[in-house]
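quick one if you have a minute, typing this from the bus. below you get a single protein, a line of residues and a line of whole numbers that encode the local backbone shape. could you go over both lines and see whether the tokens make sense for that sequence. anything you notice is useful, everything is just below.
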Amino acid sequence: MAALLQVQEVSKSFGGVQALDRVSVSLEPGEVLGLIGPNGAGKTTLFNVIYGLKPEDGRVVFKEEEITGLKPHQICKRGIARTFQLTRPFLDLSVEDNVASAVLFGRNHKKVATLGDARIEALDILARVKLDRRGETPAGDLLFPERRRLELARALATGPELLLLDEVMAGLTVGEAQEMVEILGRLRRELALTLLVIEHVMKVVMAICDRIVVLNHGSKLAEGAPGEVVSHKAVIEAYLGAERA
């Protein structure tokens, strides 16, 4: 089976700072891959390259088509969606219409004839992320964990095969994070999603990921099963320092 996504020898720098240095990553269909590393390791830059930021070297291939440097809306139409660390919904629109607008924009938009049809699909998506009771609420009135779930719902509404999650657990309590883990597990099963996940909460990484890639100073430090990676000496040094490792 061909890989769903291949990031091949990608390099990217900003003002002389090497954010990514010949990084390669691949995902198989249905896999959950965790992307971890200290702050400044290059994780979000890698997401940005997958989603249209043009690298100096290397390429990005999705479903055997090169998508390097395409516009974000073109990448979305091909079946990749992403969330962001900072949630920015349309604050004055209802939760339902925030998601309906994403349905109308997404790659299945030709199957949605009217705004009413989009709202019906939006309600189904909101139920999947446990926001169906908040559909008529202005997005600006949501609590912080609800905004996290709305960000996820808007990404799902575009109809992705591959979902990039950038610290979707950030700022959540232990109980809220556990609820998000359960939601992601159910979405993966029911929608056959492939997930690439940036996450700092190691309990979450261990719970949901099939495989982990560790970045440090823009380079790939380690890759493998979660249990192997978290006990890797170089990984422990990167997180805790050589003395504690």
Remarks:
- The chain has two domains: 5-79+160-240, 90-151.
- DSSP finds nine helices and ten strands in the chain.
- The domain at 5-79+160-240 is CATH 3.40.50.300 (Rossmann fold).
- Residues 174-191 form the longest helix (18 residues).
